[in-house]
Amino acid sequence: MTTFKQLGLSDSVLKVLSELGFEKPTEIQEQAIPHLIKGNNDFIGLAQTGTGKTAAFGLPLLERIDPFNNKTQALVLAPTRELGQQIAEHLDKFSKYLNKVNVLAIYGGAAISNQLRSLQKTQQVIIATPGRLIDLIRRKAILLDQLKFLVLDEADEMLNMGFKEDLDKILSYTPADKMTWLFS
Ligand code: AMP
Predict the structure, then answer these.
(1) pTM
(2) Which atom of ligand 1 is nearest to the CA of 21?
(3) pLDDT digits over 59-89, tens only?
């Protein structure tokens, strides 16, 4: 049986997983985490919701954030506000012992003023829905020029929902050498 430790996760993350009662990795976690935790390749993961997809990309993503770099290093795009909030909640929990790693969710349908205020502080990981993200980029509240990791969660759903143009626009603000992890 493969353990989370064998997948290469750090003690800070292993501690939180044990607190959360995660005993062993799910299939997608077992397959994705060893690739995502190191290397510079893009990645495509196919997994249903409820199979532990969020931890499959979230755990390696958090491990790879440089806590001493205040720039936005990772962006997770999700098709809906609900999914975005859910991802942020998970990442918040997973980062409990990763001091100095900040996670912020931004999405439409909520006051932009609060989001603008939160963005004045370091936010190394941003979870966003496409429309609101573009709005905040245009207001210069978010800068993606130092982005290292782009995660597209439910990428097929985002395309079905007509976000293709928004996604292209967002990609145009990101560096060419970032890693893209696509989950569908
Ligand atoms: P997700 O597919 O990411 O939405 O995860 C579905 C649910 O499974 C969430 O409530 C997770 O907290 C939980 N979960 C994810 N990975 C594990 C694991 N390895 N062991 C136990 N529960 C897990």
Answers:
(1) 0.97
(2) 21
(3) 999 999 999 999 999 999 999 999 999 999 9
Lining ligand 1 with CB less than 6 A are 22, 25-26, 29, 49-55
* Residue nearest atom 6 of ligand 1, based on CA coordinates: 50
**Are 125 and 73 in contact, with CB atoms under 8 Å apart?**
yes
Q: How far is CA 24 from CA 6, 8, 13, 20, 108, in A?
A: 10, 13, 13, 11, 35
Give me ligand 1 centre to Cα 171, in Å.
29
Q: Give the position of tokens 């429309």.
A: 131
